[in-house]
Amino acid sequence: MPFQRIQPEKLSHSVERQIELLLLRGILRPGERLPSERELADKLGVSRPSLREALATLQDRGLLTTRAGAGVYVEELLDSAFSDTLVQLFAGHDEALFDYISFRRDLEGMSAERAARHGSDTDLQIVDTVFKKMEAAHQKRNPTEEAQLDAEFHLSIVEASHNIIMLHMMRAMFNLLHEGVFYNRQVIFRKPAIRNDLLAQHKAINDALQARDAPRARHAAESHLDFIEQVLSDMKRSQKNEEIARLRFEHAQAR
Questions:
Q1: Axis-axis angle for helices 164-178, 94-118 (nearest 10)
Q2: The pTM is what?
């Protein structure tokens, strides 16, 4: 019969697998620095040569990268699911913007529902902590900080959903948002009335999650993205009207 003797696994392979799982589950994030070699070897309970072998293999596979004099980091490219050419194509067409919002609506509604059902108490505490930071930033009228925390809030919900495919897809989605491919979030957060509405919507999502009310969490997340879509649609319409008015004025001046 085709049975073979079980061979003891090399320590370096065990280290590789553990780091792989941390990357897969989103615990180690793109751009994050790993502990020093000495500290990491101590945490893992392995020799430094075994650790070096594992890190070298992970670097060869493009999962980690070394920065001269700074240490070992998670590769930034793990946060990107789209080629530069495709990103440029997205940026030039409003159709891509509204498809992006629609995709996020579906995915985040599902994430919120799953987080309410499957998130641990610690997961939901993290979501609540981020929301409280959003409230503080709102009181300080700091649109830049609020916009940053907005992304952190939504990603913390996806992390709480415990679906690794969903997590990495949403990270790619928010990377596009961070780079301003579709729209500038800070512009939205600079409008006081809209800022108030957004905070209320985030509160509704958080309240539903803390109550572990899955249907309500999904509805709150979807309603939030519906609102974003409407705001962006209104902004696009206003920009178009302003452009038409400018062209008419220039035409009248030319006559």
A1: 140
A2: 0.76
